[in-house]
Amino acid sequence: MSNKDDIRKFLVSRRANVTLAQAGLPDFGDERRVPGLRREEVAQLAGVSIDYYTRLERGNIHGASEGVLNAIARALHLTDVEREHLLDLARPASAAANVPGRTTAAVTVRRSVQRVLDSLAVPAVVYNSRQDLVTANLLGRALFSPLFESDRPNMARFIFLDSRAKDYYADWPLACSLTAAMLRYEAGRDPLNAEITELIGELATRSPQFRRDWADHDVHEHRTGRKVYGHPEVGDLDLTYDVFEMPGEPGLSIGTYTADEGSESADKLLLLAAWAATREFGSGRSEPEA
User: How far is CA 146 from CA 108, 169, 249, in A?
Assistant: First the structure.
C-alpha cells in the first residue's frame, strides 16, 4: 500500500507554513505564487540537493536515513509530533505495524484498572487510538453523558456526526481540527489498522467538516490542555485534561479532567457529581476477574 500522496501533501503543507523570517533567510521582496518556503530553500536548510529533496517531497521517502529526515524536520520547523509523523510515513506499512506497542487496542480493561478509575475523585475515561470510549468512572460517564448514550461511544463520531457537538464543545471548530489531526497521527503510526481506516472513511463520507479538516494534513497527540464543555445539565465546564498512557494496556490511555481550585467549574463538578448519583449509567467494559 503506497502512501506517496500522504507524504507529498504533508511535506507541501508544512513547507507552506514556514516564513522566510522563521527560516532565517533573507527576503528580497520577490513575489511568491504560494506561501512559505520554496523547495530549493528547504533543501538548502536541510543540507541536501534540490533534486533529492524534490524526490522526497514527491513521496519517494522510503529508505531515507533518519538523519536526513531529522534535517528536513528542522528545516520545516516541525513539532516533535510532526517529526514523529514524518518518520512514521517513511516506514513501509508492514514495518510501521510491527513497531512495539502499536497493536489494535483492547475493547475492555482489567478489573483492577476499573477500580483505579472508580477511586478517582475527578472525571476519568479510558479511550483507544480510534477514540472509542472504552470505559469511565461515574463522573467520566456524567461528563460525557451525551456520548455514552451510544452503545459504541466514540469521540470522533460524536464531534463530526452528532448535531449536539456544536453546543457541547465551546470551540467546536478547534475540537474538529484537533480530532482530525489525532486520527491522522494514529493512522500514520498504524497504517494497517483497518478499524482506524474504516472510521476515517466513514467520517470522510458523512462529514464535510471532517473532509476540510483532514485536508489540512495536521497531526496532533493529545497530552494536556484546556477545553470548555457545554454540559447539558450543569452548563459550561472549563477543565484541564491530562492524558496518561497505560503501559500494561497497549493502545489505551486514561484521560482525566480537573477544574482550577475555587473556580466556578469546580463548583459545577460538584453539581455534576450530585446529578450523576441520581442517574443509572452502564458499567464499564472490564474483564471479569478469574
Answer: 21, 12, 26
- Note the pTM of the prediction, 2 decimals: 0.87
Cβ neighbour number for residue 232 with a 10 Å cutoff: 11
Residue 33 banded pLDDT, cuts 50, 70, 90: confident
**CB–CB of 243/224 below 8 Å?**
yes
Residues in the chain: 290
For residues 183 and 127, is the Cβ–Cβ distance under 8 A?
no
Summarised one tens digit per residue, pLDDT across range 14-32 is 999 999 889 898 877 677 7
Distance CA 267, CA 114 (A): 26
Task: Describe the strand order of the beta sheet including 252-258 as a list of residue ranges.
Answer: 133-136, 124-128, 252-258, 235-245, 224-231
Residue found by looking up cell 497531526 in the block:
219
Determine the residue type at 248: G
Task: Please count the other Cβ atoms lying within 10 Å of the Cβ belonging to residue 230.
Answer: 16
